[in-house]
Amino acid sequence: MATVLDSVRAFFAHAAFTIDQENAGDIVARERLLDHVMGEARFRKSSEKLRRNRLPAEGLALVARDADGHVIGTVLLWNVEAGVDADGNAVPALLLGPLAVDCAHEGKGIGGALMRAAITEARDRGHGAVLLVGDPEYYERFGFFADEVQHLVMPGPFERRRFLALELKEGWLDGAAGVLVASGRRLSAERRKAA
Ligand SMILES: CC(C)(COP(=O)(O)OP(=O)(O)OC[C@H]1O[C@@H](n2cnc3c(N)ncnc32)[C@H](O)[C@@H]1OP(=O)(O)O)[C@@H](O)C(=O)NCCC(=O)NCCS
């Protein structure tokens, strides 16, 4: 991870922000940012069913920091099973979201930097595909399209045109069909109580 983030840092050396691994001390600031940007509605999304009481995928909680180290952007990815393949085997994948940038810092390339760092890190960690629910007008620039998830469904209401995927390994989602299921590490009872 250090290598990936070093190269992302070097690329954005001129910028007024850096992309970093989230640490335990960032969680409160991240949640505050998400409340501010997305409000309570974020807890009613179908994606939330795949995140509730789970930890993000290993090494795939990233933040953007301003020059003072404050969290001004966040992206999280989650382990899921993207249905089953033609042989009936579960298809491991990642669900991306939420992605959010502090309103005061929108349009500076922070969302894009978070997306590119997350995709690079997911690929380096050997993942096969990333799925998300979001505006195609934004996510297509990162290679996300609806084609490969035609036979997959979210575990709740979702707009088919906004259900997108990026294969990190060619053909990873071939034949994948069924409902997405959470498969990530569970939050401990203590962490659930604190949340
Ligand atoms: C979407 C979001 C993460 C983009 O962050 P950002 O740092 O402003 O993004 P970037 O600076 O990398 O890119 C900005 C570009 O994306 C475009 N863009 C932003 N949201 C868009 C959307 N929903 N649809 C189409 N284009 C969008 C902007 O118009 C801008 O275009 P330009 O480069 O042609 O001017 C941020 O606006 C945000 O937090 N929105 C609220 C939360 C949200 O909707 N998250 C996504 C769903 S999980």
TrEMBL record:
Domain N-acetyltransferase: 17-169
Keyword terms of this UniProt record: Transferase
Protein origin, superkingdom: Bacteria
Molecular-function annotations in GO: acyltransferase activity, transferring groups other than amino-acyl groups
Protein name as annotated: GNAT family N-acetyltransferase
Taxonomy of the source species: Bacteria, Pseudomonadati, Pseudomonadota, Alphaproteobacteria, Hyphomicrobiales
